[in-house]
Amino acid sequence: MSNLKTNIPWVEKYRPKSLKDMALPKAKVSGHQVDLAEELTKFVNNFFIEKSKINALNKKIRTHNHTAPDNKQKDEIKLPSEQAAVLLEGDPGIGKTSIVYALANDLNMDVIETNASDTRTRDALEKKLKETTKSRGIMDFVVEAKKKLILIDEVDGIYGNKDRGAVPAIIDLAQETQFPIIMCSNEYKQNLQTLYKKIQRFEVRSLSKPEVIKIAKKILSKEKVTGLTEDDLGLIAEKNNGDLRGVINDLQGISQGQAKKADMSLLSSLRRDTMEEIFSLIRQLFQDVTTIRDARNLTDKSDVDYNFLYKWVSENIPSFIYDNMDLSKAYENLSLADEIFGRIRKNMYWGLLPYFYDLFAGGVAISSRYGASNKGFRRVSNPIYISSTSMTAPQESLYEKIKEKYEISQFEAMQDFVPFLQALSSSSRKQLKILSDWLELDAKEKKLLKSE
Q: Does residue 385 belong to any structural domain of this protein?
């Protein structure tokens, strides 16, 4: 596994550089099938045409307002949000991000990317994007710089609270931006209705099994990997259920686990990122690891995808580290790891990947000065970005009842609010009854608040 971390992951190595090189998934707008490459190219080109016209008109308006009395002032013109932003909606791993980067490459543009689930509040999102969307950098006045394409990923991780939410901020930014915005989401969300009404939403479907197998064959051919049959590739495609990224990760895992040819026992037992393995790995990281080397040895033996493991570590820090100073140190290391991964993605510096591992796995795990206190059973929680798309009916209904009391995102509810309610409920049966009556919970919802 150690070689895997110093080489470029196949999902990045074989990320298409152009739309014409992609097996584009089918897409619909308002129930009608469209050519995704054609529509997105037209959207970007039309944006710059319309924005140029509006900028020229606003320049005249500003000149007029400079000398006109207050009662003769004119409002500047804003670009309608539907001409400034679009949304790609579809399952994880089907290629939405790759489509955006390939489109930008075709149009000789730079991609400025942020993750909306990490910058959910209005202030955080504006701080991240406002200067990018409103103005050019200083070098743009010195050299002929590339145009920019703004990518906002995981918008289904945000919410529409008027005072704190990022949805109104996105709509405002779309009307003011100097660059087109493409957003991506994994699923349809009822609380994003305001956004859906303002922009065009493309429903992107997974690639078919034959298309996935065709891509897999091309990659295996380039990597000179033999021994996998059509049926084997079909099994991998079915296991990943349309997730092309998962298929490519599995292919790399199989090929790098082989001796002279693909080990079919590995294929039959391959279950990347299984719950049993990840739960055990997280507990070992926080409870057994005492040095960076320990953490490195542990992750080297694991088949868990690096980005996936990062999210699990991030989610479970509070379960294993209680001291405020230690928590601060852990989150600082996590932040540094995130910064390094940003550089890796932006500049393709994959040689930095071991440092990313060391910081988010080792640096976080050894942050606690009280390792012994972490012993014993600790609850390991799924990252919200996974569990939110597969919540049980009681979880969904509990969230809806919480939302009736507080304007809160699903992410915040399950990440912070529900654990808080569980802690309160564990103090006494009376407290559990008070909370249950307050939220009007049924038996199944009430059970979610009981300590495990």
A: no
- Compute mean pLDDT per 10 residues along the chain, 452 residues long, and list them: 53 88 89 93 95 92 89 90 93 88 93 69 61 47 66 73 60 84 86 87 91 93 87 83 81 63 46 61 83 81 69 82 83 82 70 78 75 60 51 73 72 68 77 83 80 48
Question: C-alpha distances in angstroms, 105 versus 92, 154, 204, 345?
Answer: 22, 22, 20, 15
Mark whether 159 and 136 lie in a shared domain. Answer: yes
- Say yes or no: 427 and 333 in one domain: no
How many folded domains does the chain comprise? Answer: 4
The tokens describing 390, both together, are 């597969």
189 in a structural domain: yes
Q: Burial, 50: exposed, middle or buried (Cβ in 10 Å; 0-12, 13-18, 19+)?
A: middle
Q: In what order do the strands lie in the sheet with 27-29?
A: 32-34, 27-29, 200-204, 85-89, 181-185, 147-153, 109-115
Q: Which two tokens stand for residue 242?
A: 């349309």
- Point out the domain boundary residue: 269, 290, 307: 269
Last residue of a domain, one of 184, 204, 224: 204
Residue 6 sits in the same domain as residue 53: no
Instruction: Let me know whether 98 and 190 are in one domain.
Output: yes
The CATH number of whichever domain residue 219 belongs to comes to 1.10.8.60
**Greatest CA separation for the chain:** 82
Are 284 and 425 part of one and the same domain? no
Q: What are the residues whose beta carbons fall under 8 Å from the beta carbon of 35, sequence distance 6 or more?
A: none
Which residue range is the domain that position 336 belongs to? 275-374
- Position 54 scores a pLDDT of 92
DSSP 147: E
CA distances from 278 to 267, 310, 416 (A): 19, 11, 22
The C-alpha angle with vertex 183 and arms to 278 and 402, in degrees rounded to 5, equals 60
Rg (CA), the chain: 24
Does 430 lie in the same domain as 301? no
Q: How far is CA 172 from CA 59, 115, 390, in A?
A: 20, 18, 31
Q: Are strands 200-204 and 27-29 parallel, antiparallel or unpaired?
A: antiparallel
Q: What is the 3-state secondary structure (H, E, C) of 173-201?
A: HHHHCCCCEEEEECCCCHHHHHHHHHCEE
Task: Take residue 263 and report the two structure tokens written for it.
Answer: 């080990």
Instruction: Report yes or no on 384 lying in a domain.
Output: no
The pLDDT of residue 262: 38
Placement of tokens 């542990």 in the chain: 298
Question: 81 exposed, middle or buried (CB, 10 Å; 0-12, 13-18, 19+)?
Answer: buried
